[in-house]
């Protein structure tokens, strides 16, 4: 017989069939349930209970940690009703980190020099000029942050690119944020025409950048005309933005846009020419345009001069960092006459710009001389040495 202490707490019910309970071959229609509720002490072994030494407070049901209803009534009130500013200088500093990093390593600042020279003619009120200069500088620095990401650059102005320090996502967000900070700054002048100019030239900037990236990524060599259009949108866009804003804030009725468009083309072709010369090595790396796979002005000329020769376009495809390969590409372009051609174009554009300066200077009489001298000093810097 099984001792009582080892018996099952509930008796095993009899075997049943579809007709009822079977007992010694006899069917019983029903039986009273033998199941009965058990207390914990009936089936848990008696003895000293184990108490864990580690607290399990964090495993308590969520309902036990839920704040009382009264503490939830005010949740989000400051944000919802905008009772006070939630944004802080500390957060602003985080967002502007990549921008401030690049801004702290200034370049040649040709745009500020151009603004100062054109203002000899346009005589924009000091308060407006300060805001315009600031806005153009913000847009320029922000656009460089994006350029370095999209071009996979290593150096900018002789220091590591911002995305190698802050990461790509933070840099893109910082640059986009600054675009809108610039718009907010410009809105202080309460001039609808300026907002229209800002929007138009930011669209042009992105159109130019978009085509430049498309040609690079699809390995499509553009025509010279398409390339110059891209330059007019991309590089010329910020130059033109500055001068159009100044004209909108000036009482002097002259049109400086053709001159600034010419300077934009001159600036970029000169930059392309110098990028494939040793003078650029320290600031951006040896022949950086070749590593980026970029169709710059001298590269386009070399490819177009002999479309059957695929050497240069295949070097671009590799986006090589091999210095010997890049030196070979530069020597190939030299033999193709690329640098001679770009020098001639630079000289031609400088001559055009000089004639436009003379015309604007003459149209203003004595008041135009100071501006003419300032513009010629700018043009003197835009030359092959």
Would you give an account of this structure?
The chain is mainly α. It has one domain (about 95-380): Farnesyl Diphosphate Synthase, CATH 1.10.600. It contains 20 helices and 5 strands. The strands form 2 sheets. It has a 3-stranded antiparallel beta sheet with strand order 1-2-3, with no helix packed on it. The chain has a two-stranded antiparallel ribbon with strand order 4-5. A hairpin with a 2-residue loop joins strand 1 (about 15) and strand 2. Helix 7 packs across helix 12 and helix 11 (about 190-220) packs antiparallel against helix 12. It is flat, with a radius of gyration of 38 Å. The N and C termini lie far apart (about 115 Å).
Distance between the termini: 115 Å
**What is the architecture at the second tier of CATH?**
Orthogonal Bundle
Structural classification: mainly alpha
CATH topology (fold) name: Farnesyl Diphosphate Synthase
- The named CATH superfamily: Farnesyl Diphosphate Synthase
Organism: Glonium stellatum
Protein name: geranylgeranyl diphosphate synthase
GO molecular function: geranylgeranyl diphosphate synthase activity; metal ion binding
Family: Belongs to the FPP/GGPP synthase family.
């Amino acid at each position: 017989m099984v001792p009582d202490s080892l018996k099952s707490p509930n008796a095993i019910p009899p075997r049943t069939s579809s007709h009822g309970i079977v007992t010694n071959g006899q069917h019983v229609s029903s039986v009273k349930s033998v199941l009965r509720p058990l207390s914990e002490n009936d089936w848990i072994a008696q003895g000293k209970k184990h108490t864990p030494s580690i607290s399990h407070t964090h495993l308590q049901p969520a309902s036990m940690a839920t704040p009382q209803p009264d503490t939830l009534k005010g949740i989000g009130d400051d944000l919802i009703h905008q009772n006070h500013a939630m944004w802080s200088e500390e957060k602003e500093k985080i967002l502007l980190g990549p921008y401030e990093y690049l801004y702290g390593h200034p370049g040649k600042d040709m745009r500020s020099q151009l603004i100062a020279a054109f203002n000899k003619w346009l005589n924009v009120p000091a308060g407006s000029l300060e805001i315009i200069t600031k806005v153009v500088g913000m847009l320029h620095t922000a656009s460089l942050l994006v350029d370095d990401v999209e071009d996979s650059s290593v150096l900018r102005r002789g220091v590591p690119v911002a995305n190698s320090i802050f990461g790509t996502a933070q840099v893109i967000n910082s640059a986009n944020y600054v675009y809108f900070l610039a718009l907010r700054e410009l809105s202080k002048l309460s001039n609808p025409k300026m907002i229209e100019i800002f929007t138009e030239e930011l669209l042009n900037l992105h159109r130019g950048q978009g085509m430049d990236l498309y040609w690079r990524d699809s390995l499509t060599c553009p025509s010279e005309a398409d390339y110059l259009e891209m330059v007019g949108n991309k590089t010329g866009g910020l130059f033109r933005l500055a001068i159009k804003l100044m004209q909108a804030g000036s009482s002097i009725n002259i049109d400086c846009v053709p001159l600034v468009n010419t300077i934009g083309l001159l600036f970029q072709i000169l930059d392309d020419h110098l990028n494939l010369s040793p003078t650029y090595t320290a600031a951006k790396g040896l022949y950086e345009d070749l590593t980026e796979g970029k169709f710059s002005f001298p590269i386009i000329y070399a490819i177009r001069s002999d479309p059957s020769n695929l050497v240069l376009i295949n070097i671009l495809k590799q986006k090589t960092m091999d210095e010997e390969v890049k030196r070979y590409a530069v020597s190939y372009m030299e033999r193709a006459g690329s640098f001679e051609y770009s020098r001639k174009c630079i000289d031609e554009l400088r001559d055009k710009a000089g004639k436009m300066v003379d015309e604007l200077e003459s149209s203003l009489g004595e008041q135009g001389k100071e501006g003419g001298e300032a513009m010629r000093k700018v043009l003197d810097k835009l030359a092959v040495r």
